[in-house]
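Weekly structure sync, notes
Attendees: PL (lead), two postdocs, one rotation student
Agenda item 3: pending single-chain targets
PL asked that the sequence for the first pending target be pasted directly into the notes so everyone works from the same version. It is reproduced below exactly as submitted, 137 residues in total.
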Amino acid sequence: MERFVVARAAEIPPGGRKLVSVRGRDVAVFNVKGELFALLDRCPHQGGSLCRGKLVGLVESDEPGRYRYHRQGEIVRCPWHGWEFDLRTGKSWCDPKRTWVKSYPASAVPGGRLAEGPYVAETFEVSVEDDYVIIEA
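Predicted structure, written out during the meeting:
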């Protein structure tokens, strides 16, 4: 997989999101409590922008009248028709076997690690101030 630098980590703080371009495709990057997720920014239903969707949690029930709300902020709801997708997997909660959004591995990597390579040459002192957000596609 190829790696793409798409933003500085500080540009997407916890609770934030950013629309980026990878290989000409719009990708929505979400920061949920410091964990980064990236999805293709196109709802498979009718193409709504998932980056503009509301982040919600998951409601589960083992029996009538008893409900649990958890995974707060890990489900994105399409702003057009309310279809919901898991940020971790891209799977739909409506029809997970047939409907999903392409998800991408995303992480924050210290800028110094991006400069590493297999060869050694004379070095000079350099400092890297910020981390960068990397998407693998």
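Discussion points:
- The chain has one domain: 3-136.
- The chain has a mean pLDDT of 79.
Action: rotation student to compare against the earlier draft before next sync.
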